[in-house]
Design brief:
20 strands, Immunoglobulin-like, 4-stranded antiparallel β-sheet, alpha+beta
């Protein structure tokens, strides 16, 4: 470029001389600095490719091709900010984990033609729920490469849930009844309500304990044995179910989390029977302070009280179950309750195992409560969820109905979208208010 300007100036000088014009050459400097800003900057770009990826795992190659003759002398330590975002909110800063870049094509003169990096995004290791994320790689301000390289954004989509059994309102046979059995997950961290259909019986109390003792079906990928020790005798009086156990409980008293889950399995399962309000444990026919390790048993124990958030527990086999979680007493509005079912509003609560049920784009426009019917009006994104992924739509709907009807004074829910009747290609009618499904997580 500088030779072009010299040529132009020389032609000007010759034209002035040819015209007889006096021209003083010391008024123009023809020696243009070779470092003039008109020189073209090096053409560099940050590129990426998925070397391997699945619904829960991404292996991403990053590289920068250095143009020929570009002198690579920069240390790339702390050169880039690498972050994982959810709807523009930072979820994880991975910069220090991936601060090592490798060079290729090193010549005798020390020049490099490419620098590379590799990033692993494993959903389980990151402990993130399903959803859409964004990996950003941004040159840090002040580093030399920031003058030549623009930031890139890489879309990430995690989908670990592959199965869900819709909550239902009717038993498979008129001769069956549905028992709500609370089984722990395989690590005894969460309690999952399962509906098991059995022949009608006049001894629901005993049948519930018997079914608990048989454990969950293997295909549920929950606790792999009975969650409770043997219960030889049960009595019901005045809403109190008295359970008589041995003081020698073996495995069920070896670990505090197993003992706690055994107690909660019995309390919540029996508490789902309308006639049972509380449980009293007896060990060798006596009330003791701590008959189960870490569980006070010297007083009655009551089932958890609503309202609940119904969130997802995702089993190792990819099946989703709705599980109740206590709502903090400070949460008072319907809008905030529904927001708690989204990841971005409540990120510390959710993980790979416990997942939100409402996508972030679904928003509540308005709501009103009259005579036990709660009307909730959502934006168009509510309908879009069903159109994109029916499984996710049904999980969302069941969660909304179970959550909102657990709120005091709410008997049923009328759902609208932008003030209109939702137009969904499902077997569900939204014309009238919907009640909470009677049978959650049917055992299939």
């Amino acid at each position: 470029m500088r030779y072009f300007f010299k040529t132009i100036l020389l032609l000007l000088v010759l034209s002035f001389v040819g015209a007889g014009t006096v021209f003083y050459t010391d008024t123009i400097n023809l020696d243009i600095d070779s470092s003039d800003e008109s020189e073209e900057p090096p053409q560099l770009s940050l590129e990426y490719a998925f070397q391997d990826h699945s619904s829960t795992y991404y292996l991403i190659d990053l590289w920068i091709d250095l143009e020929e003759g570009f002198e690579y002398t920069q240390n790339l330590t702390n050169a880039f900010s690498i972050k994982l975002l959810s709807h523009n909110v930072e979820i994880a800063d991975l910069s220090s984990d991936y601060d090592s870049w490798s060079s290729t094509g090193m010549s005798d003169t020390g020049s490099v033609d490419k620098v590379t990096n590799q990033i692993v995004l494993d959903q389980n290791l990151l402990d993130l729920p399903d959803g859409t994320y964004e990996l950003t790689v941004t040159p840090r301000t002040g580093h030399a490469l920031s003058e030549y390289i623009e930031a890139i954004s890489i879309p990430i989509q995690y989908t670990s849930i592959t199965d869900y059994q819709y909550a239902i309102n009717e038993t498979p046979s008129p001769n069956n009844i549905g028992l709500t059995l609370y089984f722990p997950d395989e690590s005894s961290n969460y309690l999952v309500p399962i509906t098991r259909f059995v022949p009608q019986t006049n001894t629901t109390l005993r049948e519930t304990v018997t079914q608990l003792e048989s454990g969950p079906s293997a295909n549920l990928a929950l606790f792999d044995r009975s969650p409770i020790p043997p219960v030889p005798r049960i009595q019901l009086s005045g809403g109190t179910a008295s359970l008589y156990l041995s003081s020698q409980l073996g495995f069920y008293n070896e670990y505090p989390n197993v003992a706690k889950m055994a107690a909660r399995s019995l309390v919540e399962s029996l508490g789902s029977i309308p006639e049972v309000q509380r449980i009293q444990f007896y060990f060798d026919n006596r009330i003791v302070d701590e008959g189960l390790t870490g569980v006070p048993t010297n007083t009655i124990i009551e089932p958890e009280k609503p309202p609940f958030l119904y969130v997802i527990y995702r089993a190792p086999n990819g099946r989703a179950f709705l599980v109740p979680s206590i709502i903090d007493e400070t949460v008072v509005s319907i809008n905030e309750i529904l927001q708690l079912l989204t990841f971005d509003y409540n990120p510390e609560f959710y993980s790979t195992e416990i997942q939100p049920t409402i996508p972030e784009e679904v928003k509540l426009i308005s709501y009103s409560l009259a005579e036990g019917t709660l009307m909730v009006d959502f934006n168009q994104a509510f309908t879009n969820v069903f159109a994109k992924n029916l499984l996710q739509g049904r999980i969302m709907l069941d969660s909304i109905l179970l959550t909102l009807t657990s709120v005091e004074d709410v008997n049923d829910v009328l759902i609208r979208v932008n003030g209109e009747l939702p137009e969904l290609d499902t077997d569900i009618s939204f014309i009238d208010p919907l009640e909470a499904p009677a049978y959650i997580n049917p055992e299939v």
